[in-house]
Amino acid sequence: MSSPGLTASEVADAWVEVAQAGLRFWGRLGRLAFESASAIVAERRTEAAPAAVAAAAPVEAPAPQVEHTILVEAEAGQSGRAVFLVENRTPERVSVSVEVSPFVDGKGREVSPQIAFRPDVITLDPGEQTVVEAAVAVDQTLRSGVRYRADMSVPALPGTTIPIVVRRRAKKRQAKAESKAA
């Protein structure tokens, strides 16, 4: 007994639409999380400002921190995003941009993906914090599946070196073809 139904192509198209809707949802949720974190930090800044002014004593040297690596992944032609927190533990107001070392793979091959930060200039009073968003443009110059490592730093703030790894993901169709060929 046969019944009218969807063709395999129509089912595949429906799944693609569902996946794209999911990606849009999670992308928007990520942006919302970033904006929420920024608002919370901004609120904390205004609450901490009087305390920072009242505490005229010198700020202690930064405590040693555990190194955490930020992983940014995207398909070629897409941008990968990450957020990180920057804190001014110095007794001085700072206004500076994030700097990034060259990206290199495990064999020492250097690539130069475009990277942008929001805010592009960080201005913090003593004791203040801010959330910074990094957006990395992943293109064809990055080999699929290869990890490219660099260090981000805020030169005026000791202890703010943050390792970042950028990796180009294989496109879904390409990944399926590669797994079938293996």
Could you please describe the fold and organization of this structure?
A four-stranded mixed sheet has the order 1-11-10-4, with no helix packed on it. A three-stranded antiparallel sheet has the order 2-9-7, covered by helices on one side. It has helices spanning 8-54, 172-181, and strands spanning 70-75, 79-87, 94-96, 99-100, 103-104, 110-111, 115-118, 122-124, 129-137, 147-153, 162-169. It has one domain (8-181): Immunoglobulins (Immunoglobulin-like), CATH 2.60.40. The protein is flat, with a radius of gyration of 22 Å. It is 31% helix and 30% strand. The chain is built from two helices and eleven strands. With 182 residues, it is an alpha+beta fold.
CATH class: Mainly Beta
Low-confidence stretches: none
Tell me the span between the first and last alpha carbons.
38 Å
Q: Strand-and-helix sequence, N→C? A: HEEEEEEEEEEEH
What amount of the residues lies in strands?
25-35%
Largest sheet: 4 strands, mixed
Helix content: 25-40%
Class from helix and strand fractions: alpha+beta
Give the number of domains. 1
Oligomer category: single chain
The strand count comes to: 11
CATH fold-level name = Immunoglobulin-like
Record the strand order, biggest sheet. 1-11-10-4
Which architecture name does CATH use?
Sandwich
Radius of gyration from the CA trace? 22 Å
Overall, the morphology is flat
Overall pLDDT level: 79
Q: Note the total helix count.
A: 2
**What is the CATH H-level superfamily?**
Immunoglobulins
Task: Explain briefly what this protein structure is.
The protein is of the alpha+beta class and 182 residues long.
